[in-house]
Write a structure and sequence with these properties.
Blueprint (H helix, E strand, L loop, with lengths): L6 H24 L7 H21 L10 H17 L5 H4 L6 H8 L14 H10 L1 H11 L3 H27 L23 H21 L6 H19 L4 H5 L1 H13 L8 H23 L1 H9 L7 H15 L9 H5 L19 H32 L7 H16 L9 H14 L23
Helix pairs in contact: 1-2, 1-8, 1-19, 2-7, 3-6, 3-17, 7-19, 8-9, 8-10, 9-10, 9-12, 9-18, 10-13, 12-13, 12-18, 13-14, 15-17, 17-18, 18-19
C-alpha cells in the first residue's frame, strides 16, 4: 500500500513543477530570436542555471530518484560532439584534416602553423553551441523526474505560451507596421509571434496544439464540457494562426499533429463514448472550414498556396553549394556552429546576393557539414534511444501514454521540418525537444506527489 507523502514534500514537488513550467514558458518567450539575437539566448542560458538551482533547492529534502539512463545517454551523446571538437590536436593530426589548407597558410604568415589547434575551424562558435545545448538537456532531466499529472501541468504551460504567441502574432499582423515584432529581422508581413522566423513559429503552434491535447488527455476532469470547449477553441486559434505564418512545411505537417492528438484520445473512447473523438473531429472539420473561408478573402493564403511549388525556392541553390562544402569537410566535419565559415568558400559567385546564407535550410545537411561521420553516428544512436523509449511507453498503461505521445509527435514534427529548415538551431524549439525527451521517459509513480490516480504503477511493477 502506498504511503502518503508529508505535506511539505508535496509542496516541494509542486514547487519543482512550477519551476519547470515557468522555465518552459521563459524558453518559449526568449528562445525564438536565433543566433542573430545572441543577447536573448545568453539571458535564457543564465535563466537555465537559475532554474536548475531552484529545482534542486526545492527538492533537496526529497528522496533523490536516479536520473533515467535514457536522459544520461542522450545528454552524453549530444555533448560529446562539441566537446571532442574543442580538444586541441597536435599539428601532425590537424594538418591532415580536410579543408585546413587555408588555415595552415594563414597561420604560416605569423609562424604559428605548428600550433595545437582543435578540430573546429571556429572554436568560439563551437563553444557557443555547446553552451546552447545545456538548457534543453536540463529541461529533459527536470521533466523526466516529474509524475504524469505534473507533466500535464508542464504541457499546459507549453500550450498557453503557444496561444500567447498566436495572440501576439495577431497583433503583429493587425497592428501598424512592425510595431509588435520582437525582432528587427523577423519575417515582415507574416505571423511570427515570439520568433524571428515564421517557420519556427509554425512549429511552436503545432507543438502547442499537441500539448493542449496532451494536457486535456491527462486531466482528471476531461469529461467537463468547459474543458472540451477550451481545448477545441485553443486548437482552432492555433490552427488559424498557423496559416498566417505562411510556412509551407508547417501547414503540410498539420496531419501529423492531428494524428498525434487523435491517438491521445483513443484511450478515452470507452470512458467517454463520443466526447473526445467528437471534439477532435469537430475541431479538425472546423479548421478545414475556416481555412477554406479565409482562403476566399485573404490574398496571403492564396500566396501561400502558390509557394508550395518551390519553383523559385533558393534552398535548391543553397543545398547545391552546401554539398560542395560537405565534400570538402568530409568525414570529420568543421565543428558545431561553423556552417557559415565552412560554406562561404564554396558558394558559387553566380548565386551570391546581399543576403547572408547563415543556415543550410536542411538540419541534416548542416549537421553533416559540422559534425561529419561521428555526428551522424551520434544522431543514429539518439534516434535509436528515442524509438526504444517510444516503444516502451506504448506498452505501458493507457493512462500513461499521453505524455509520451506528445514527445514522439513533437520529435516527428521537428524531424520532418528539419528536411527543409533548422528547427533545433532555435533555442525555443530545442528546449521543447528537451521537454519531449523528458516526456518519453517513464514517469515516477504518481504516489510520489499524492496526485489523484496515484494507483498508476511503473511497467516494472506490473511484471
Amino acid at each position: 500500500m502506498a504511503t502518503m507523502q508529508a505535506p511539505s514534500l508535496r509542496v516541494a514537488s509542486r514547487s519543482q513543477t512550477y519551476v519547470v513550467a515557468a522555465f518552459v514558458a521563459l524558453a518559449m518567450l526568449l528562445g525564438g530570436g536565433g543566433s542573430p539575437n545572441p543577447s536573448a539566448e545568453v539571458a535564457l542560458q543564465l535563466a537555465a542555471a537559475i532554474a536548475v538551482a531552484a529545482y534542486w533547492w526545492f527538492g533537496r529534502e526529497q528522496d533523490k530518484a536516479p536520473l533515467p539512463l535514457a536522459v544520461i545517454g542522450v545528454s552524453a551523446l549530444v555533448l560529446a560532439v562539441p566537446i571532442a571538437q574543442l580538444i586541441p590536436l597536435p599539428p601532425q593530426i590537424w594538418h591532415d584534416l580536410p579543408g585546413r589548407s587555408r588555415e595552415i597558410a594563414a597561420l604560416a604568415l605569423v609562424d604559428a602553423q605548428d600550433s595545437w589547434m582543435p578540430l573546429s575551424i571556429a572554436p568560439h562558435k563551437t563553444l557557443a553551441s555547446l553552451l546552447a545545448m545545456i538548457p534543453p538537456l536540463a529541461l529533459a532531466w527536470m521533466v523526466a523526474t516529474r509524475t504524469t499529472r505534473e507533466r500535464g501541468a508542464i504541457l499546459g504551460s507549453v500550450a498557453l505560451m503557444a496561444l500567447a504567441g498566436a495572440i501576439l502574432g495577431t497583433l503583429q499582423m493587425a497592428g501598424p507596421g512592425d510595431g509588435f515584432k520582437l525582432y528587427a529581422d523577423a519575417h515582415p508581413g507574416w505571423l511570427t509571434g515570439f520568433h524571428a522566423n515564421r517557420n519556427a513559429a509554425a512549429d511552436i503552434l503545432l507543438i502547442g496544439a499537441v500539448a493542449a491535447a496532451g494536457c486535456y488527455a491527462i486531466s482528471a476532469d476531461r469529461a467537463r464540457w468547459d474543458h472540451r470547449i477550451t481545448l477545441g477553441s485553443t486548437v482552432l486559434v492555433l490552427g488559424a494562426a498557423l496559416l498566417f505564418t505562411g510556412s509551407r512545411a508547417g501547414i503540410a505537417l498539420v496531419p501529423i499533429a492531428a494524428f498525434g492528438m487523435l491517438v491521445m484520445f483513443a484511450g478515452s473512447m470507452a470512458e467517454h463514448r463520443f466526447g473526445p473523438w467528437a471534439l477532435a473531429i469537430a475541431a479538425i472539420s472546423a479548421l478545414v472550414i475556416l481555412t477554406a473561408g479565409l482562403a476566399l478573402f485573404d490574398s496571403r493564403l492564396a500566396y501561400v498556396a502558390t509557394r508550395f511549388g518551390m519553383t523559385d525556392d533558393f534552398r535548391l541553390e543553397l543545398w547545391q553549394d552546401s554539398f560542395a562544402a560537405l565534400s570538402a569537410s568530409w568525414p570529420w566535419g568543421t565543428g558545431m556552429g561553423t556552417f557559415v565559415e565552412a560554406f562561404l568558400p564554396y558558394e558559387r559567385l553566380d548565386v551570391v546576393d546581399l543576403t547572408m546564407p547563415n543556415r543550410a535550410h536542411n538540419e541534416y545537411l548542416e549537421f553533416a557539414i559540422e559534425a561529419g561521420i561521428p555526428g551522424l553516428l551520434v544522431l543514429v544512436a539518439i534516434a535509436g534511444i528515442l524509438v526504444h523509449l517510444a516503444i516502451r511507453a506504448w506498452h505501458s498503461q493507457p493512462q500513461l501514454r499521453a505524455a509520451p505521445i506528445f514527445g514522439l509527435t513533437s520529435f516527428i514534427l521537428i524531424a520532418l521540418h528539419a528536411l527543409v529548415d533548422y528547427p533545433l538551431r532555435n533555442m525555443a524549439e530545442a528546449c521543447l525537444a528537451g521537454v519531449a525527451l523528458g516526456m518519453l521517459v517513464r514517469p515516477r509513480d504518481d504516489n510520489a506527489s499524492g496526485a489523484p490516480g496515484s494507483g498508476i504503477k511503473s511497467l516494472e511493477d506490473n511484471k
